[in-house]
């Protein structure tokens, strides 16, 4: 059980260990980008620190329903104690993954406010959903939210993604959500990229082999945190429809190279570059962009809207997916 009976000494120790004395400040330039050219020129020379969510994050919050006492609930989660094996396992994994989260960004280094804010958000979620706990991949999503949102808002946005957008299903034991999304991606690949679908089949490449990390991190393991704004915008507005479109766009960009692959290793190599360093994601960009130096993620993501999907059918598939069997339970209408 969560223990709320903490004396002042315990509380102060908890505050010190969680880094609550370090204020989290948003890192994005969303507010600055809304200013006029002259205002931006002036403000760039002024120190800009804010712990208030940017306007984009505030728009995301309109898709969520945090509790009225959201700050109190979050603080209680941060300062409560939970003694279970599941939570202790979560703590160990969080500590390992903190250093792997957007490693090129100084704000997430172990001496910064971002590092401690990310730790608190992930620990708080591990208590909030103690049956699930922390799972690898969550760190990238929470980190991207913290880039734009206050710590409390980032936590509740993260909860909304898990519960309202059903991201939680992907982290459950046996990964039923991942199975659901990959089955749909394979259907879409057959429709939009039949030659590539055949190439995958001939080399026995299933969707989980390349799309699992995209699913677990909402592309955060591939796309730099400064560019994740476009992914988060799309996902909060369209949910998994946006995700499926994004996967198809990425596969379209990579199709020529993938079709030239002669074995499974060559086929998976362009798809498996993780966000471990600035150099690696630039290599990924080079592959999908074929040397276009003007490439940016925003322009690629803009192509996502060109992919027309049958939203009603995909919604039908989602509604008829059995998490226990990881299969679609479709019925023929007679």
UniProtKB/TrEMBL annotation:
Residues 64-239 form the Rab-GAP TBC domain. This is Rab-GAP TBC domain-containing protein. One of its GO terms (molecular function) is small GTPase binding. InterPro entries: Rab-GAP-TBC_dom (IPR000195), Rab-GAP_TBC_sf (IPR035969), Rab_GAP_TBC_domain (IPR050302). Gene3D superfamilies: putative rabgap domain of human tbc1 domain family member 14 like domains (1.10.8.270), Ypt/Rab-GAP domain of gyp1p, domain 3 (1.10.472.80). SMART domains: TBC. It comes from Stentor coeruleus.
